[in-house]
Amino acid sequence: MVVKSKGLNSKTAKLPVLSKEAQNRSEQKAGTIRIRAVHKTFPQFDAPDIPVLVDINLEFRAGEFIALIGPSGCGKSTLLRLIAGLALPDQGSLNLDDKEIHGPGYERGLVFQDPTLFPWKTVYENIAFGLRARRVYQKEKNTIPEFFKLVGLEGFEKSYPHHLSGGMAQRAALARALVNKPKVLLLDEPLGALDAFTRMNMQDEILKIWEHRGMTTVMVTHDVDEAIYMADRIVVMSSRPAKIEQVIQVGIGRPRQRGDPDFLDLRAKILQILHFAGTKQELPYYL
């Protein structure tokens, strides 16, 4: 069964009850993200500023898997960068638990569409980089093999990024984000550059890691099927300047089947919402 909540343009709607699985995850080390009245513009030289986000109000609870979806260029990645602390809002606030976000922090791990591995470092050194940057490598280096096993890269510790396939490189990037044991994992279209078969395999791998580690996960995607397959809730954003069109609770049990009638019904509804959100072009299967 599919349950949806109304848009959250001016105030945060009442959150749905968490499933038993999500409640169990929230008891593990995870964080709650609160976004209040956030506005963001991009300044231009000798031209009016470009409004990107307008009055964004959201709450992502500890242990949830959230998907952000909307027309290309609407501000999904900008919102993710604000949560990561790589940019600051013009107005409003973002909090991780009871602490306002003012910059990057190890408790928020970020994975980009491209793996962005250091080509001159081995896979081991890439994954260990965060621990070295925090000056806790000597204390926590014994945990690194756990993350190689978690992402299925055992035996590739001494390899270099150019030795890895696209999927393997993205696994290494994922391990690099996880090694700091973040409360929140941020995924900026991490599977967008992969072929369809590898992409589906990686979707399952990310879900296994999320279920195992228990961290709150926020993923930007253009793929409606991916959002339905992976997320507890889907945030549908309008075209720029982005507002929240709807927040949809995915009431389909796990593991999900892409051919399930409820799955197909929800996909059709989201495509319709995206069309009403201002997408003028014909919407392809993968958005």
Question: Can you characterise this structure?
Answer:
This protein is α/β, with parallel strands linked by helices and 287 residues long. The chain starts with a strand and ends in an 11-residue tail after the last helix. Helix 8 (224-230) packs across helix 9 (261-276). The relative contact order is 0.20. It has a 7-stranded mixed beta sheet with strand order 1-11-10-4-9-8-7, with helices on both faces. The chain contains 9 helices and 11 strands. Helices cover 32% and strands 23% of the residues.
Brief summary of the model shown:
By secondary structure, the chain is an alpha/beta fold. It has helices at residues 20-26, 76-84, 123-133, 137-140, 144-150, 166-178, 196-213, 224-230, 261-276, and strands at residues 3-5, 33-44, 47-60, 65-69, 91-96, 99-100, 108-111, 184-188, 216-220, 233-237, 244-249. The strands form 2 sheets. It has a 7-stranded mixed β-sheet with strand order 1-11-10-4-9-8-7, with helices on both faces. A 4-stranded antiparallel β-sheet has the order 3-2-5-6.
Strand content: 15-25%
Residue windows where pLDDT falls under 50 for at least 5 positions:
1-14, 23-27, 276-287
Shape: globular
H/E topology pattern: EHEEEHEEEHHHHEHEHEEH
- Give helix % range: 25-40%
- Average pLDDT value? 87
How far apart, in Å, are the first and last alpha carbons?
A: 24 Å
**Secondary-structure class:** alpha/beta
Number of helices: 9
